Amino acid sequence: MSSAASIDSHQHFWQVANEADYPWMSPAQHVLYRDYGPRDLAAVLARHGVEGTILVQASPTDRETDALLVLAESTDFVKGVVGWCEFTEPAAPARIAALAQSPWVCGLRPMVQDIADDDWLLREDIQPAFEALSEHGLTFDALLHPRHLGRLARMLARYPALDVVVDHGAKPAIASGDLRAWREDMAVVASRPGTMCKLSGLVTECGDDWSIERLRPVVEHLLHCFGPERLMWGSDWPVLNLAGGYGNWLEMSQKLTSHLSAADKAAIFGGNAQRFYLDRLRARGQGRLHAHAP
User: Fold this and answer.
1) In terms of Cα–Cα distance, which of 29, 27, 28, 32 is closest to 13?
2) CATH number, position 23
3) What sign for the dihedral angle of Cα 196, 201, 205, 206?
4) Domain region containing 168
5) pLDDT tens-digit map of 161-211
């Protein structure tokens, strides 16, 4: 393999003993239904030359977010954490303010894709939480499906300063081939200045028939909409173990971007995640130090 990613912008850990925390997972999913922790990923990262990761929540619980922060403290390759908080709670702004004091929390990710109300992003009772994200310099990971993109665009129009990244390219329906609405709505979301998108999670949207040729039109559209300066590569490990594993997805991603310049590839495979997540985290930490200086 040629050049390797230096930052994986999207990976998970979990423990199946906390089964109630992961309602989307079942014992029938043998590949996923087991514990995944730092030891499992460390050798994979070393094999592919990945220097660091962003650890992302996979459970809509404060308990998991708190546990991820403990893991980040003891795991060298974890550089930042995207956690969770219940945006509908009146106490959400206070919880967000507290999380912003962590040296690890880059941003938050409400699991929009799993919320029954398709208009959840537009609810008035969650707007204080988004205001708190902006106020405290935290990012918003948008985990959603194509049907949510129009609502996302409307919500983001309220918050021009909110830093947002669309996870997994909004999970286009690659398996069915029904991409027309996704193409149009993704272009609208991408037209908002500064909005980012993760080149992640796409291989599992192909179903069993995953291939580089099925992925090519999707990746080309994301490159057209966002440009290499607003795309960041992520593995979605261990979920991508359902479809070929870490090395296969990394290699396909490199082939799909092989026509880009060295600078553009460096941005997608590390530089953009560094800028979006880690530079911001460092700046926020420096701000806290100055605020508490005598």
Assistant:
1) 32
2) 3.20.20.140
3) positive
4) 7-289
5) 999 999 999 999 998 889 999 999 999 999 999 999 999 999 999 888 888
